[in-house]
Amino acid sequence: MASISRRGLKGVRLRPAAGVPRTGCKAWSRIGALFLSLAFVATSLIAPNHAEAASPVITWKLENPFRFFIDPHDTEAHRATYRALGPTERATPVLAAEHALQSGDRDGWAASMFRKTCWNNNRFKCDAYDDYINPSNHAVIVEVTGVEDASTLTCTWLTAPRGDSKNPRGDAITQPCSESARFVVPYPGGAMVTVQIGGREVSKTLIKVRDVLIAGMGDSFASGEGNPDRAVRFSRERTSDYSTIGLYSGLTGYPARIGPWRDLGDKTFIKENARWLDQACHRSLYSEQLRTALQLAVEDPHRAVTFVGVSCAGAEITDGLFLRYKGNEWVPNPPRLSQISAVAEAQCGNNKTQPLDLPEAFHMNGQIPQLQNIVLRKCPQDDARKIDLVLLSIGGNDIGFSRLLANAVLSNVSLLRELGGWLGQVHGEAEASAELATLGARYKSLNRAIHSILYVPWQESDRILLVAYPGLALEGDGSQMCGDGNSGMEVVPDFQLDRTKLKLGTWFADKLHRLMRDASYEFGWTFVETHRRAFIGRGICAGLSVEGVSEVDDLRLPRKIDGVWTPYNPADYQAYAARQRWFRTPNDAFMTGNFHVEAGLLTKVLRIEPFAPFQLILASTYSGAFHPTAEGQAAIADAVVDKARSVLAKYGAGPDADPTGYTVPSPEDTPAPAADEPNAQIPDINSVLSKSGGEKGVTGALPAANASPAAAVPATDDDGKSGATVGVTSGDPSDEPPPEAVVGPPPTETAVVPSPSPPAEPSATPIEIRPLNRGPQQTQTSTEPAPAPASPPPDQEQFTPQRFAPASGGTTNAAP
User: What is the secondary structure of 309-338 as a DSSP string?
Assistant: First the structure.
């Protein structure tokens, strides 16, 4: 009856029943027609909305809503994952999607996608678009629902583009009604789309895409440091020996990379380095800024996102956002511009920016001397596309948080402490307080630049989202923290977490958090902080160092002892498996990023001899130690997405009411705001530091001392044994099996890294270590250089040492 109701009586032929005379046919026809009419009316009265609900409806979605991915299939993988989430999972969609994507991909989902983006040679350009920043059209997929027996009917699709004078009638497609159609609709005008069945219009809708521009700037917490798009993989049999002499004796039996390399730091070895979307800045697809933009794209079928992310590990507001900073890893073609200038260049699309000499605009009456007489790039306002959201994660490097962290994790007898941290200084209360005192002025200067250089309207300052840093080692209710020990850090004997000194760092982290919040309120920015509570109990010490623990939650580093890997074979390590901890430990960093540099760079430029032990330090710190994992980045992104939705909705870029139910979570599905962390009284730092020994209690999941792996104890080696080696690798690379293969004992021959004779006592041979990628003059200059052509090969370019950013995008000062 419902079918008849939809078709009506037209075309329904009535026949007399068997045995009824033909002469009564007309009479029976009248009776039958009357009966069917009454039945149709009754059906309409009983279910008045049934026919309306089943009326044909056109639904549509963007083919590729995240335009930064040039392959629509990559975006669809994320969109399909989001759509498969349940109501509870959609409360934290990015984290839930991260778990779903990683569960079926050992190498991580980004490994197959990061080469197919619109980031090319330090510019936002790709062959998929004539102008990535300023789209002229979008491809959409349309279908019609509510048509019975759609596979047996033929639909004709007609389009009438708006704003396209060259093609006013648009395209027409005839195909089965069960199939979807693809159209390219102009932007921003859109197109009216009509569907006909049998020459009769059954539905029509206006397809108009909302394309939002999202810019991301900041430091290592924003870039995704610690989470390369393609992590390093390890051999099942080979091992690496970094040193058997001097203070670093006993550095043997370490995991060795796959590949046919023979010496640590040789060219073949370096080719197996972890790979990043941006190698210099250690920026990856796991970045919370990119995940935020991606989520906003896939959750709304009618919204496209154009993403411009330029965050760089090690960046500060001065050196990084205002001034050119060459990144966290040396490459032949480092960033050409400061982040503000890079966003301005992107904002211009295919148009040209102009250099702007600003001698007095941003130094804030001399409070920021580095910003005197600077030159920034700026797009003419008529050519600049309006930015819908600016995502920021910045400030940690400006107060030297990594130097505070170095103070907390380097043992008092550490050679690294004597040398001033792993690549810079070790800070205490006085130094951090001095840096903190100038941070407010830096935020004010940044606010001025975002409005005046990037054209974010002053009355729309809430489009700027400043993201808080999560707590590194908070436990319990947020007032407790990790205890003393080296769990998760035994990769290098210098690491020894000191809980008393960690309190100092936590105290300053809380002061930084409060200052960031106050600055956001002062300038009208949107402050994102709800993720901080989610990190409590998931800090640097979350895990165990005892037998029987799951490999992913085991804090220990695999070592080969007496021919047996303990606690597990490094070839089985999964960098992106779900873990209790959301921060990379130094052990995790070694197993994930495993950063090394070419041997000649250390010996010729940094003048470090012997270089093999220093490679181990780089591999365990420069690879993202003390930074959020991919899960941590996803948890941060969920908090940012929640705030971003509200801002976009306020300015008319929220989701449409869609009949398919393909919409974002309702407000009641989102997590409640978190309380301020840490929820504890600020201690008297002087009294804390004056205590002898400090508290030795272990909080959270940190194991007891007798359960921790035995770390190599630094010891002097005065006898200079002739058989000592530095940088030995066991196993012939020609016999390297595939990563999954299980093979017999390794060959006996070794590949030895050339090393000098055993070094003298450290005090007798001072070593000059400068922060990587910043010479002493670079921090003093305040002039933004003009864009330069591609850099020459490595052997032709003068290398400028970089700086390391181990925590909160950490930073160090240039050595004198």
Answer: E---TT-BTTBBTTB----SS--SS---S-
Q: Is 802 helix (H, G, I), strand (E, B) or coil?
A: strand
The Cα–Cα gap between 810 and 400 comes to 6
Task: Compute the half-sphere exposure of residue 362: CA atoms within 13 Å on the CB side of its CA.
Answer: 29
Distance in angstroms (rounded) separating the CA atoms of residues 792 and 496: 41
Using CA atoms, how far residue 387 sits from 202, 208, 307, 533, 590, in Å, is: 39, 19, 10, 30, 38
Residue with tokens 């040209």: 352
- 579 closest CA partner among 227, 289, 298: 227
Total length of the chain: 816
Round to whole Å and give the CA distance between 754 and 726: 8
Tell which wins on pLDDT, 579 or 10.
579
**Contact by Cβ (8 Å): 343, 308:** yes
Q: For tokens 């309702």, name the residue.
A: 666
Element (H, E) at 235: strand 234-241
The beta-carbon contacts of 127-133 under 8 Å, at least 24 apart in sequence, are 127/70, 128/70, 129/67, 130/350, 131/349, 131/350, 132/67, 132/306, 132/349, 133/213, 133/306, 133/308, 133/346, 133/347, 133/348, 133/349, 133/350, 133/385
Q: How many CB atoms lie under 10 A from the CB of residue 707?
A: 14
The two structure tokens encoding residue 780? 């003093």
Question: pLDDT (tens digit, 9 = 90+) per residue, 720-740?
Answer: 333 444 445 555 554 444 444
Lowest-pLDDT choice from 167-181, 322-336, 343-357, 668-682: 668-682
HSE-CB at 446 with a 13 A cutoff on CA atoms is 35
Query: Do residues 524 and 451 lie in contact, with contact meaning Cβ atoms separated by under 8 Å?
Result: no
Q: Shortest CA distance to 425 belongs to which of 783, 782, 779, 798?
A: 779
With beta carbons less than 8 A apart as the criterion, state whether 808 and 428 touch: no
Cβ neighbour number for residue 438 with a 10 Å cutoff:
15
Q: How big is the CA angle at 72 (ends 67 and 73), to the nearest 5 degrees?
A: 140
Instruction: Tell me the C-alpha distance between 359 and 808, whole Å.
Output: 30
Could you give the C-alpha distances from 536 to 498, 529, 532, 693, 762, in angstroms and in order?
19, 13, 7, 25, 40
Q: Where do we find the tokens 């390219």?
A: 184
Q: How far is CA 556 from the centre of its chain?
A: 25
> What DSSP character marks residue 199?
T
Residue 773 Cα to chain centre, angstroms:
22
In sequence order, the β-bridge partners of residue 750 are 730
Task: Report the distance separating Cα 601 and Cα 800, nearest Å.
Answer: 11
660: tokens are 């398919």
Strands (DSSP E) contained in 645-769 are 728-730, 750-752
Kindly report, residue by residue over 11-41, the tens digit of the pLDDT.
333 344 444 444 444 444 444 444 434 443 3
Q: What are 142's two structure tokens?
A: 């349309």
**Least confident interval from 90-99, 591-600, 628-637:** 591-600
> Tell me, what DSSP letter sits at residue 240?
E
- The region, left, alpha or beta by phi > 0 then psi within -120 to 50, assigned to residue 661 is left
The count of other CB atoms within 10 Å of the CB of residue 671 is 14
Kindly calculate the radius of gyration of the chain based on its CA atoms and give it in whole angstroms: 31
User: What residue spans of 271-366 are helical by DSSP H?
Assistant: 288-298, 339-347
Nearest-angstrom CA–CA distance, 510 and 519:
14
The confidence score (pLDDT) of residue 80 equals 97
- Sole residue written with tokens 């508290």: 695
C-alpha–C-alpha distance, residues 54 and 51, integer Å: 5
Q: Which residues pair with 474 in a beta bridge?
A: 481
**Residue 103 pLDDT grade (very low, low, confident, very high; cuts 50, 70, 90):** confident
**Over pLDDT 70: what percentage of the chain?**
69
**H/E element holding 309?**
strand 303-309
Spatial strand order in the sheet of 750-752 = 254-257, 234-241, 728-730, 750-752
Residue 52 has pLDDT above 70, yes or no: no
